[in-house]
Amino acid sequence: MPELPEVETLRLDLCRTLIGRRILHADLTKPRMLVDPYGLGLLSVEGRTIERLRRRAKMLVFDLSGGLSMVVHLKLAGQLSHRKGDHVLAKGGHPVPPFDAPLPHKSTHGRFDLDDGSVLWLTDIRQFGRVTVVPTDLVDDLMAEKKLGVEPFGPEFTVDYLAQRLRRHKALALKTFLLDQSGIVGLGNIYADEALFEAKLHPLRPAGSLTAGEIARLHRSVVDVLRYAIENGVADLPYARVRPGADYPRAHGRADMPCLTCGTTIERIKVGARSTDFCPSCQPAPARPPRTG
DNA sequence: AACTACTCCTGGAGGC
DNA sequence: TGCCTCCAGGAGTAGT
N or C: which end of chain A has fewer CB within 10 A? Predict the structure, then answer.
């Protein structure tokens, strides 16, 4: 569930409290959650100071002293909480367990003890999250291997770039296109639906069927939806449903509820095995549905 | 090369 | 209450 806005707001929060802290002890109780292509081991982060906290796509990069970095991907259900005793200093990611729940939770699988007595907890009810230790000068290589696309807030994400990618994958459903991290990074299931709702484009529209105006609209919607989430609060959907009475998110999690724009009942369909919510009135169906993979 | 299906994992929800 | 089944979703990988 943590998508770009969740990871970015978490990064900003942790930057306030973690920079300059030294890691005394590190522990991951689920060995599968450590990916260690360089054979450095998790303990190699001990004794190092957190100097910088970056984000690339949906990943957090902790740059430590001595040229070592730790990359954290929260995947579907990862959560980080920086606490001193019971006091929450900073937190973010998947909202289950609740951010004010006592830690460690039974799904807490990682802990980093810091030099001021605070602890950075990694909790993940799905255990899909991953931690990688990598020399700082090889972080870019590691990212390059993943064939990540452009950052939506970066200078490379232009209307022309989007148009070019859409042409290249012209048969793909828009929803599938937006989830593909090799084009634009950062969108997940929630914000892909939000961007399509905002752009008034049906999730099954073939990527190659968009007019120039629609491409420009989609481009702006992607940026606006992500920026809105960062500035006004992330989606925070615990079980893929909006909280009763909430007016956000505007499409995802609202199946069977009235569209906030026109009142039409929001529909839920599967697009490439991902639940996809949209307004059949605001987002008119394509004449001929594409493949959905 | 481009696309699709499958896999990892477990807690919560809903049915009976 | 308790058992059972289904569902959620990022991304790596294997197969078409």
Answer: C
Which residues contact residue A22 at a Cβ distance below 8 angstroms, ignoring those fewer than 6 apart? A47, A48, A49, A50, A114, A115
The amino acid sitting at A78 is G
Model pLDDT for residues A178-220, shown as the tens digit of each residue: 999 999 999 999 999 999 999 999 999 999 999 999 999 999 9
pLDDT in tens, A78-107: 999 999 999 999 999 998 898 988 999 999
φ, ψ for residue A40, nearest 5 deg: -85, -25
d(Cα A92, Cα A109) in Å, to the nearest integer? 16
pTM, rounded to two decimals: 0.95
What is the DSSP annotation of A4-26?
A: HHHHHHHHHHHHHHHTTPBEEEE
The sheet with strand A34-35 has its strands ordered as: A34-35, A130-135, A68-73, A59-64, A50-56
Nucleotide nearest to A180 (CA to C1'): C11
Q: Which nucleotide is nearest to A2 (CA to C1')?
A: C10
Tokens of A162: 């989007």
A293 CA → C4 C1’, Å:
30
Can you give the distance from the CA of residue A125 to the C1' of nucleotide C3 in angstroms?
22
